[in-house]
Amino acid sequence: MLKVIHPGFYTTIQDAGRFGYRDIGVPVSGYMDAFAARFANALLGNHPDDAVMEISLKGPTLKFGINTRAVTYGAEAQLKLDGEIRAHFIPFPIKAGQTLEIGNIEKGARLYLALQGGFQTEEILGSRSFYPEITHSAKLYKNQELMLKETKVLPSGNAHLKHDNKILTTNLLAVLKGPEYDCLTAEMRKKIIDFTFHVGHENNRMAYKLEEKLSENKVDMLTSPTLPGTVQLTPSGGLMILMRDAQTTGGYPRILQLTEAAINILAQKREGDGIRFSLLN
Amino acid sequence: MHPTESNFSLRFFPYSNSAILIEWPEEISEAILQDIRAFKCEIDEQQPCESVMAYRSLLLIYKKKIDFKETVKTLKKIYQSREFLNIKPKQWKIPVLYNNKVGWDLEAFCTQKKLSPTDLIRLHTSAVYRVFAIGFLPGFMYLGGLDQKLWTPRHSKPRAKVPKGSVGIGGQQTGVYPQESPGGWHLIGNAPVQLFDAHRKKPCPISVGDTVRFSSISEEEHELINIQVKSGIFQMKNLLEHA
User: Fold this and answer.
1) Structural domain boundaries of chain A?
2) Domains of chain B: which residue ranges?
3) CA B111 distance to own-chain centroid
4) Measured distance CA(B190)–CA(B101) in Å, rounded
5) What is the CATH number of domain B91-239?
6) Which fold has domain B11-80?
7) Chain B interface, mutation test: which of A49, A123, A133, A219, most B Cβ atoms within 10 Å?
8) Any CB–CB contact under 8 A between B44 and chain A?
9) CA A187 to CA A191: how far, in whole Å?
């Protein structure tokens, strides 16, 4: 068990997501940066789809009730175990009674904390991923208790991993043409590739709005299915990129579709970060 | 509704590396919806994917990367062999309390439309609606078939909080908010029922293609169903109409 002393800014438990319920409007959810979450699981020898903690902007403080091993990956923040600094992306043991404090995120947007065996929080509709009205909490709260798997404390590895997480530094998002790409004028198509866009103030697990606008348009369409990674063009010319918690249908033209790798890259961007689209095929 | 046996001309679109979007001609039509249901029914049995239906679209989402050309070849064969049996739509009847206390826009709506509340209730309860899509929120139905006299553009500024169960009108559609959420529709009443419950065996038993009617209930009946929902004895099957 683990007790939440401070929940941080917006902390959730996420796994690979909720499959098979999108026909009744339940978003797939799951790790925003699936690459980072799976990498963290791999560093501990977990199953790739095990549940991890997803941490945004400001990290939580957690008090452990059992022995375990932990690792962080993705965005970077200062880690302190009982006041002693621990390295990012190198697994370390935690003993019952110890407190892990994760500071402000300094690089990237989402940090993943994996524990050996994965988080054992409630599984609803086949997934542990937090989502309002599905799981009993939408985000971590003070004094919340989370179930874990007890593991033997293994000696701390002294591996010096040299690692460069390129996802945090690249700004190129590979995209496919979306179902309504053909609605775009030649000028809009050119702008999409030439512009550097910037992540707007409204960016969360549901969608990322971009600062720059294309141009006003009057494409009228019936409500249609959408996917995480869909770039929607709003009537005022705004661009909205749907993310993992996005609703399953939408009424705006779906002009581009981010690849899975591009969704992971975008998940590590925050307000003001620049991005460019690179159209495949 | 009679199923059509003729084939529509379909567009197969590679929406992502693991998803295929199938589109029917762009119109609101019960024949199209029925054809989508028949196709989906076969696909669900034969393909390792989940599927989302909406108006004239069927989206197939696979867990793994797919070979688009090969999969489309298989899907086209499945489309030819689809059958229209076993896809009988269910018919639902949803109880609604229509008044200004729970339907915050009822009075303003009636004034704007020059209708009495009785007229509004009569128009809203006499239609049989078709579920053309489920999305926006878990269990939120896009219902087509609203009487033209009730068509109204949504509020220009959506409300930050619309209470759970609110029945609204937005554009040419009507529907029920299955949970509290932001929303821009004109609220005319409240359905005390639990349309979506993640802890139920079938979290949302209503599916795209089903029909829905609304029935006007009293405050007492509203309160009674509310109590049933809160105490966990409410059952969705009570809302099923038998043909």
Assistant:
1) 2-164, 170-279
2) 11-80, 91-239
3) 28
4) 9
5) 2.40.100.10
6) Gyrase A; domain 2 (3.30.1360)
7) A133
8) no
9) 6
A248 interfaces chain B, CB cutoff of 8 Å: yes
pLDDT at A220: 79
CATH, domain A170-279, list 1.20.1050.40, 2.60.120.760, 3.40.50.1000, 2.40.100.10: 2.40.100.10
pLDDT, one tens digit per residue, over A16-32 is 999 999 999 999 999 99
Per residue in A72-82, pLDDT (tens digit) is 999 999 999 99
- Give chain B's residues under pLDDT 70: 1-5, 85-86, 243
Contacts of A248 in chain B (CB under 8 A): 52, 134-135
Q: What is the ipTM of this complex?
A: 0.94
Block residue for tokens 């049995």: B45
CB B142 within 8 A of CB B131: yes
Contact A133 B17 (CB under 8 A): no
Contact B212, B141 (CB under 8 A): yes
Beta-bridge mates of residue B91: B211
Rg of the Cα atoms in chain B = 19
Q: What is the pTM of this model?
A: 0.93
Instruction: Measure the CA–CA gap between A30 and A205, rounded to whole angstroms.
Output: 10
Contact B135/A222, CB-based, under 8 Å? no
Annotate A117-176 with DSSP letters as a single string. T------BTTB----TTTSS-SS--TT-EE-------PPPP--------GGGT--EEEEE
Residues of chain A under the 50 pLDDT cut: none
For chain A, give the number of residues: 281
B225 contact partners, CB below 8 Å, separation of at least 6:
B95, B192, B193, B217, B234
